[in-house]
Amino acid sequence: MTRIAVAGAGAFGTALAVALSGSPPEDCRVTLWGRDRAGMARLAATRETARLPGLRLPPALTVTADPEALAADVVLLAVPAQALRGFLAEHRAHLAQAMPVACCKGIDLTTLEGPTRLMAAALPRSRPAILTGPAFAADIARGLPTALVLACADETLGTGLQRLLSTPVLRLYRTADVVGAELGGALKNVIAIACGACIGGGLGESARAALLTRGFAEMRRLAIALGAEETTLMGLSGLGDLVLTATSEGSRNYRLGLALGRGEGFDPGVTVEGAATARAALALGGRLGIAMPVTAAVAGLVEGRLTLPEALRVLLDRPLRAEI
């Protein structure tokens, strides 16, 4: 029997666990793991979570806080990107024999590395993969049609994971371009914050379209410089994810941008991956000599160094040039 563990009982991890246990492959058992023992005991008893209102967990889904559950065949790591390095260090022994699949989107602020490099460093015998693309947790949990990208450098392993993790309504596309898929998912969150700030500040839909397009150009420049394939950025894990995240209030990154544009506070307890990623991406861009004005404006906004009018002035005062 194949054992699948989902590490991280937030909205996205829970949604993945629900989707996989709702129509599990033959001879497959799915477990949802979270570190909060009291919270996981409550979830196991009630089968309901405030993170996904109106949803009941399928009977086949096991819920636990026991770290032994992480000693599975495949572990989907749905922990926040900035917590991943610490999580891997803490649970290295449990994960030693597993096939790890990152389900978070970000760049570690300390190492300036993405999830798969962090996994490779912590678990040297593993062949890391990443699951990414345009999807909201609520849609996955409700069984709405969704397409994601499974990126793995090992084609045989990637094909096996693609088959294992696909369901009748969760369609996975496969790529060997791990760098491109990883960076597309991380960098689009930064641009989503910019687009939210644009709308929140009353700058209009036309300005948002310009920010989305120029922000996508920044994503491509940095990703290609780091070894990504340009075609990957044009797919689900790049452009597709950007369009979803930069246009919907279902995105926490977009909602943070809205709050910044309106001059409102934002719940500090809500994980917004793009805030830290903006700082990390800006550092990477500086290291490589790549201009990233939209990313710099977002970093300034989230750190409180720039107001929206100041950020806008910086962008509009850039020299006139050809588009491409």
TrEMBL record:
<dbReference type="Pfam" id="PF07479">
    <property type="entry name" value="NAD_Gly3P_dh_C"/>
</dbReference>
<keyword id="KW-0547">Nucleotide-binding</keyword>
<feature type="binding site">
    <location>
        <position position="105"/>
    </location>
    <ligand>
        <name>sn-glycerol 3-phosphate</name>
    </ligand>
</feature>
<feature type="binding site">
    <location>
        <position position="137"/>
    </location>
    <ligand>
        <name>NAD(+)</name>
    </ligand>
</feature>
<feature type="binding site">
    <location>
        <position position="105"/>
    </location>
    <ligand>
        <name>NADPH</name>
    </ligand>
</feature>
<feature type="binding site">
    <location>
        <position position="137"/>
    </location>
    <ligand>
        <name>NADPH</name>
    </ligand>
</feature>
<dbReference type="GO" id="GO:0008654">
    <property type="term" value="P:phospholipid biosynthetic process"/>
</dbReference>
<dbReference type="GO" id="GO:0051287">
    <property type="term" value="F:NAD binding"/>
</dbReference>
<feature type="binding site">
    <location>
        <position position="133"/>
    </location>
    <ligand>
        <name>sn-glycerol 3-phosphate</name>
    </ligand>
</feature>
<feature type="binding site">
    <location>
        <begin position="252"/>
        <end position="253"/>
    </location>
    <ligand>
        <name>substrate</name>
    </ligand>
</feature>
<feature type="binding site">
    <location>
        <position position="12"/>
    </location>
    <ligand>
        <name>NADPH</name>
    </ligand>
</feature>
<dbReference type="InterPro" id="IPR036291">
    <property type="entry name" value="NAD(P)-bd_dom_sf"/>
</dbReference>
<dbReference type="GO" id="GO:0005829">
    <property type="term" value="C:cytosol"/>
</dbReference>
<keyword id="KW-0521">NADP</keyword>
<feature type="binding site">
    <location>
        <position position="241"/>
    </location>
    <ligand>
        <name>sn-glycerol 3-phosphate</name>
    </ligand>
</feature>
<keyword id="KW-0443">Lipid metabolism</keyword>
<feature type="binding site">
    <location>
        <position position="105"/>
    </location>
    <ligand>
        <name>substrate</name>
    </ligand>
</feature>
<dbReference type="GO" id="GO:0006650">
    <property type="term" value="P:glycerophospholipid metabolic process"/>
</dbReference>
<feature type="active site" description="Proton acceptor">
    <location>
        <position position="188"/>
    </location>
</feature>
<keyword id="KW-0520">NAD</keyword>
<feature type="binding site">
    <location>
        <begin position="8"/>
        <end position="13"/>
    </location>
    <ligand>
        <name>NAD(+)</name>
    </ligand>
</feature>
<feature type="binding site">
    <location>
        <position position="252"/>
    </location>
    <ligand>
        <name>NADPH</name>
    </ligand>
</feature>
<comment type="similarity">
    <text>Belongs to the NAD-dependent glycerol-3-phosphate dehydrogenase family.</text>
</comment>
<dbReference type="InterPro" id="IPR006109">
    <property type="entry name" value="G3P_DH_NAD-dep_C"/>
</dbReference>
<dbReference type="InterPro" id="IPR006168">
    <property type="entry name" value="G3P_DH_NAD-dep"/>
</dbReference>
<feature type="binding site">
    <location>
        <position position="251"/>
    </location>
    <ligand>
        <name>sn-glycerol 3-phosphate</name>
    </ligand>
</feature>
<feature type="binding site">
    <location>
        <position position="35"/>
    </location>
    <ligand>
        <name>NADPH</name>
    </ligand>
</feature>
<dbReference type="GO" id="GO:0046167">
    <property type="term" value="P:glycerol-3-phosphate biosynthetic process"/>
</dbReference>
<feature type="binding site">
    <location>
        <position position="252"/>
    </location>
    <ligand>
        <name>sn-glycerol 3-phosphate</name>
    </ligand>
</feature>
<keyword id="KW-0963">Cytoplasm</keyword>
<protein>
    <recommendedName>
        <fullName>Glycerol-3-phosphate dehydrogenase [NAD(P)+]</fullName>
        <ecNumber>1.1.1.94</ecNumber>
    </recommendedName>
</protein>
<feature type="domain" description="Glycerol-3-phosphate dehydrogenase NAD-dependent C-terminal">
    <location>
        <begin position="177"/>
        <end position="312"/>
    </location>
</feature>
<dbReference type="GO" id="GO:0005975">
    <property type="term" value="P:carbohydrate metabolic process"/>
</dbReference>
<keyword id="KW-0444">Lipid biosynthesis</keyword>
<feature type="binding site">
    <location>
        <position position="188"/>
    </location>
    <ligand>
        <name>sn-glycerol 3-phosphate</name>
    </ligand>
</feature>
<dbReference type="GO" id="GO:0141153">
    <property type="term" value="F:glycerol-3-phosphate dehydrogenase (NADP+) activity"/>
</dbReference>
<dbReference type="InterPro" id="IPR011128">
    <property type="entry name" value="G3P_DH_NAD-dep_N"/>
</dbReference>
<dbReference type="GO" id="GO:0046168">
    <property type="term" value="P:glycerol-3-phosphate catabolic process"/>
</dbReference>
<comment type="function">
    <text>Catalyzes the reduction of the glycolytic intermediate dihydroxyacetone phosphate (DHAP) to sn-glycerol 3-phosphate (G3P), the key precursor for phospholipid synthesis.</text>
</comment>
<dbReference type="InterPro" id="IPR008927">
    <property type="entry name" value="6-PGluconate_DH-like_C_sf"/>
</dbReference>
<dbReference type="InterPro" id="IPR013328">
    <property type="entry name" value="6PGD_dom2"/>
</dbReference>
<keyword id="KW-0594">Phospholipid biosynthesis</keyword>
